[in-house]
């Protein structure tokens, strides 16, 4: 019996720190390869907000929802 290969979702990737992979998938799906496309930026912001809220609710405080690094820096990091 074979197994079905299901790739990780962009949300899952961002949740587990695999940001670049998540951003690449969102860019392909929503921006036709353009990372600066408004739809790409909107979806990234939404996913980041949810992931931050989840981290805050798991620890019981909103302060801990802020990661050690800046999400904004990741969002505005130039493409390589």
Automatic annotation (TrEMBL):
Pfam families: Sugar_tr. GO terms for molecular function: carbohydrate:proton symporter activity. One of its GO terms (cellular component) is membrane. It is a multi-pass membrane protein. Its main location: membrane. InterPro entries: MFS_sugar_transport-like, MFS_Sugar_Transporters, MFS_trans_sf. It comes from the Eukaryota. Keywords: Membrane, Transmembrane, Transmembrane helix. The keyword Transmembrane helix applies. Gene3D superfamilies: MFS general substrate transporter like domains (1.20.1250.20). It is found in: Membrane. This is Major facilitator superfamily (MFS) profile domain-containing protein. It comes from Penicillium cinerascens.
């Amino acid at each position: 019996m074979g197994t079905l290969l299901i790739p990780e979702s962009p949300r899952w990737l961002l949740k587990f720190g695999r940001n670049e992979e998540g951003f690449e998938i969102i860019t392909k799906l929503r921006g036709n390869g353009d990372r600066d496309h408004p739809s790409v930026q909107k979806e990234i912001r939404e996913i980041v907000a949810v992931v931050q809220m989840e981290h805050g609710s798991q620890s019981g405080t909103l302060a801990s929802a802020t990661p050690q690094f800046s999400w904004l820096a990741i969002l505005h990091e130039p493409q390589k």
